[in-house]
Amino acid sequence: xxxxxxxxxxxxxxxxxxxxxxxxxxxxxxxxxxxxxxxxxxxxxxxxxxxxxxxxxxxxxxxxxxxxxxxxxxxxxxxxxxxxxxxxxxxxxxxxxxxxxxxxxxxxxxxxxxxxxxxxxxxxxxxxxxxxxxxxxxxxxxxxxxxxxxxxxxxxxxxxxxxxxxxxxxxxxxxxxxxxxxxxxxxxxxxxxxxxxxxxxxxxxxxxxxxxxxxxxxxxxxxxxxxxxxxxxxxxxxxxxxxxxxxxxxxxxxxxxxxxxxxxxxxxxxxxxxxxxxxxxxxxxxxxxxxxxxxxxxxxxxxxxxxxxxxxxxxxxxxxxxxxxxxxxxxxxxxxxxxxxxxxxxxxxxxxxxxxxxxxxxxxxxxxxxxxxxxxxxxxxxxxxxxxxxxxxxxxxxxxxxxxxxxxxxxxxxxxxxxxxxxxxxxxxxxxxxxxxxxxxxxxxxxxxxxxxx
Length: 454
Prior knowledge:
Methylamine Dehydrogenase, Chain H; five-stranded mixed β-sheet; 3 helices; 35 strands; globular
């Protein structure tokens, strides 16, 4: 039975005030933010450090549909956003299958009971093409003390009070044609919320003030390359039919940005179609760029940073590159330390544990371990369960957790030898990346949230 939905009081909407010239509509105030505890909170896509790693302990290894399930809570409609955890709350977003209504749902971490079920937006004209390739609620929210920021791409962005469910502000004027619906997740730093919009008509990055929703900066990054020339270079002969079916397809991307600090300089690493940019997060000024090789669009992987290098893939071409972020301008020919195409994914992000970078293929369940400094291959092996992997891996206590769309969570050792520790089966597909906190894994399946704990 579906739990009852809790909605914000009508008086909240009556009190709306539009911020002049900023496009933001504000509704109220909430508590001042606090920093996350990395072991107890999973505040954004891929966790507190944004790279899938966590210092959490007592994380289960062997579990499944009928084993170590503390609670299993139905989540209505559909969405692939990952769960985020703060304090005693777990949040996800969800949407009607036709995209006409968008929701934020919170459950109690201990009991699994639904705390909030808030309709955030109505959508008059949602994208309906490419059904099955994405949902209308795929971007993962970002949460801090007292506030959660939910993002639905061109459909809208809003700040909610996590205690009352009250909407604090919203933006619905930042738009692009995602074609296959939105997927890039927001990134939070201090009072700035960073967003990426890379559609077939317009591409830009923006920073919003978390207190008001006002625009702090916005940088256009239009792709100048000709899609027809790209197709011709790859030997495609029926170019006109491709252009008719997918006009400007080389302009779209779905990746989430990453904040790093390199040699005392903060950088926002923001993959776009055809190019990955580094921006000054305070001003939005471009620091450097790497131009992608081949079919460098449809990016979905989030970059990771370790050993003085930034690692990211380049979309359909499935080329993984390691870049020294110490340059300026176009560093494509000067600062790429190494690259690897075999086994590199288009959708699940890589993960680095100690000196090794691990990645899993989109299809077939092939896992590759590379030396993170040199790019040298250490091993490559196929998971016994195989499977398609769209979720990004997470790592805890020297183990890597790989979640497949077939409903399997494979646990392998983060080591120089391929070792499968467990393969844990669930009844439904697993597309969202999991969250991990002390003693627990939070999984989102096709229709449920699970807490896995001993």
